[in-house]
Design a protein that fits this description.
This protein has about 300 residues and is α/β, with parallel strands linked by helices. The protein contains eleven helices and 14 strands. The protein has an eight-stranded parallel β-sheet. The protein has a two-stranded parallel ribbon with strand order 1-14. Strands 4-5 form a two-stranded antiparallel ribbon. Helix 1 packs parallel to helix 10. It starts with a strand and ends in an 8-residue tail after the last helix.
């Protein structure tokens, strides 16, 4: 069975939490190419300003990374969204500003997938909670979710749903059905060993998510993933149940020393041991196509 393997190259952490993650355009292109050659069919990334070490959601940077990787390897490459919290999410123009890079990339025909997170959560680590620290709030108001889905319909890209909590799945499924022309989403179940959201990476938790998916969006593609998580114990479970896998320094436990291509290679070995094989990007597109092919 072909199993999609996604490599999430860096995430929002900065090198304070993930010292090995790539930051520059050149490093992200090289890392994406190496991950594709190791067996990843899908690459996800955050663009950074190397001078400050902070995330910089610049469409030209994203375009350079996407085109740089795809010029060498046939792979699906897609960017993130800016993290929004507190009153910033509700200020005038916040929705348009948040999706500005996505819209620009969509107009250029560069997007096959795009991030849409259908819900909001308190984002705190278990260690922070144990010290009575508040953490932060990751906000995705309904207007933001619908903006992402309407852009997916307009530009033909597949919404990649991060399912942090079960309600994300129910809301995301309902909203996707309500937006005419929106491609069917991919449901990425977010597990964690380090954070308090959702479930730990256990088989009972995957079973619960799949029961809900069968009710809310039957037949939809899904994958195991997370933040601050060792997802390896769920790889065989995912393969056995017809799912897919995401790995990489965005998702891995903080301070992971293993580079992204090696994490992909390890995932490939686990998939093969479970009786699957890594899918190609062409197979991903064939089984779950975007509405429009990338340029």
């Amino acid at each position: 069975m072909p199993v999609w393997i996604e490599a999430a190259l860096n995430g929002p952490w900065t090198r304070a939490r993930q010292p090995r993650m790539p930051l520059t355009v050149a490093d992200l292109v090289a890392d994406g190419i190496a991950c594709a050659r190791a067996g990843a069919a899908i690459i996800h990334l955050h663009a950074y300003d190397p001078a400050t070490g902070l995330q910089n959601d610049d469409p030209d940077s994203y375009a350079a990374i996407i085109e740089g990787i795809r010029a060498v390897e046939d792979v699906i490459v897609y960017p993130t969204l800016p993290f929004v919290q507190s009153a910033d999410a509700f200020r005038p123009g916040a929705v348009e500003a948040r999706y500005a890079a996505v819209e620009a990339l969509g107009r250029r025909g560069l997007l096959e997938w795009g991030v849409v997170d259908p819900g909001s959560i308190n984002l705190a680590t278990l260690a922070e909670a144990a010290q009575a620290q508040a953490g932060s709030v990751y906000l995705n108001p309904g207007e933001h979710i619908l903006r992402g889905l309407h852009l997916a319909a307009e530009h033909g890209f597949v919404p990649s749903y991060a399912i942090y909590e079960p309600g994300f799945l129910r809301l995301g499924a309902a909203l996707a059905r309500a937006v005419p022309g929106c491609p069917a989403p991919v449901y990425r179940f977010m597990f964690s060993d380090a954070f308090t959201f959702g479930y730990p990476p256990r088989p009972y938790a995957l079973d619960a998510q799949l029961r809900l998916l069968a009710d809310a969006a039957p037949g939809s593609p899904w994958m195991v993933a997370g933040l601050g998580v060792d997802i390896r114990p769920l790889v065989a479970e995912a393969v056995a149940r017809g799912g897919h896998v995401r790995v990489g320094l965005e998702d891995a436990p903080f301070g992971t020393e293993t580079p992204n291509p090696a994490l992909v290679a390890e995932a490939v070995a686990l998939v093969q041991q479970a009786g699957g094989r890594p899918a190609t990007a062409a197979e991903v597109r064939q089984t779950h196509p975007a509405a429009r092919p990338p340029r």
